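This part of the workshop introduces the protein records we will be handling. Each record describes a single protein and holds just a pair of labelled lines. Instead of coordinates, the fold is spelled out as a row of discrete tokens. To make this concrete, we reproduce a full record directly below:
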Amino acid sequence: MRGTDQRSENLFSYVDLEERIPAKHPLRLIREIVNDELHALDADFAAIYGHGGRSSIAPERLLRASLLQAFYW
């Protein structure tokens, strides 16, 4: 089953993530572009994942994390 792509804001930090990243940081623009493309793939992801079982980590989260790792490699 496909997991949700929602952040748990206050689970491990008392400071909002949006406050930690400067407003003009290049990753903000990249994140918008990536989110638009991942939104376009939403139907494809839904078709791939089954409806039963335990929820997985959302593929959007995994792809964003992989992209971020590639940028900082």
Q: What stands out?
A: DSSP finds four helices and no strands in the chain. Residues 3 and 57 are 5 Å apart (CA to CA).
